[in-house]
Amino acid sequence: MATNHLLEIKQYGQSIWMDNLTRDIIQSGELRDLVENQGIAGITSNPAIFEKALAGNVIYDADIEAGVRAGLPTYKIYESLIFADIRSACDILRPVYEASNKLDGYVSIEVPPTIAHDTQATIAEARRYFQEIDRENLMVKIPGTEAGLPAVEQAIAEGINVNITLLFSVESYVNTAWAYIRGLEKRASDGKDISEIASVASFFLSRIDNNIDAKIDAKLKKGVDDIAVEAKLKAVKGKVAIANAKIAYQEYKKIIESERWQALAAKGAKVQRLLWASTSTKNPSYSDVMYVDELIGKDTVNTVPPGTIKACADHCNVGDRIETGTEEAYKLIENLKDPDININLDTVMDELLAEGIDKFIQPFQSLMNSLEEKIKVLSPV
């Protein structure tokens, strides 16, 4: 039997989660097989995933009809569908949750992307989702926006597991880590247990390279007279996301060595693991598993879409690489400031965060519209 390389990754301290959830894979037994036999230790979801799951899929029709008969508004019908899927996935992953001492086995659901810049609304929805879904191994996804971080802090203080999403810059990751720490400190100061709370910081990858590669290609298309300058530009392509992630991991190490973290660890707190997200390779000239191979290491998670899961199981080159090439990573990021390259990474990260929220709002609104149409079709005349 061929080696499933996904199963090898765990020995290096990294967990593989899947970035996908549909009722089909729950009911067919595919999800259970992925969990029990292929090393999948968690699930992440987002509005774009749910839009694809619900669009044109008759598997949800009976529950939509039940919602219509109950007189539920569209948004509540939507929630009834996704909450049911999330609960089922949580139940399938419950054995992983127990066996890993509550480190893995989580299913993530995102608060509505329309409230990404509203702290109080985010807190209220995180609280409601956690209560209504009613599964210990639920993670609520909160965007790492300026308004999102106080919500993260409060949710952690209340004992809600949080997946902070849409992180692009190292600075945004560091801010997220300290929000987690402040939440734990607040909870501990209230005399509450902090040993059973988990959090991940979802650090996005391929979108960074897509953005920067496009900028490089635009410069090259204009024409570069100097061969040395052309070489500089080409040397950056497809390299920034992984370099950025390796630097973020170095910041993670500094944080867990701090006195504030050590004080929490002494009370049983779990580290907030860096989670590599957006790990499907968009450029066909790059390795289809490069965002897995290059970032395997201790205390990390990689959330992988189904296509990349199959590719990695087949031909990932597994090894502990999260701290290889660190010096080169710092140099590469610094080189972006070279006048010949002249890419402002802060501007790129701001663009990506704005685009990221929009990429969740658009499918969310599209999902509501398509659900409205389906409700009309299924409603009794």
UniProtKB/TrEMBL annotation:
<comment type="function">
    <text>Transaldolase is important for the balance of metabolites in the pentose-phosphate pathway.</text>
</comment>
<dbReference type="InterPro" id="IPR013785">
    <property type="entry name" value="Aldolase_TIM"/>
</dbReference>
<protein>
    <recommendedName>
        <fullName>Transaldolase</fullName>
        <ecNumber>2.2.1.2</ecNumber>
    </recommendedName>
</protein>
<keyword id="KW-0808">Transferase</keyword>
<dbReference type="Pfam" id="PF00923">
    <property type="entry name" value="TAL_FSA"/>
</dbReference>
<keyword id="KW-0963">Cytoplasm</keyword>
<dbReference type="GO" id="GO:0004801">
    <property type="term" value="F:transaldolase activity"/>
</dbReference>
<dbReference type="InterPro" id="IPR018225">
    <property type="entry name" value="Transaldolase_AS"/>
</dbReference>
<keyword id="KW-0704">Schiff base</keyword>
<feature type="active site" description="Schiff-base intermediate with substrate">
    <location>
        <position position="141"/>
    </location>
</feature>
<dbReference type="InterPro" id="IPR001585">
    <property type="entry name" value="TAL/FSA"/>
</dbReference>
<comment type="pathway">
    <text>Carbohydrate degradation; pentose phosphate pathway; D-glyceraldehyde 3-phosphate and beta-D-fructose 6-phosphate from D-ribose 5-phosphate and D-xylulose 5-phosphate (non-oxidative stage): step 2/3.</text>
</comment>
<comment type="similarity">
    <text>Belongs to the transaldolase family. Type 2 subfamily.</text>
</comment>
<keyword id="KW-0570">Pentose shunt</keyword>
<dbReference type="InterPro" id="IPR004732">
    <property type="entry name" value="Transaldolase_2"/>
</dbReference>
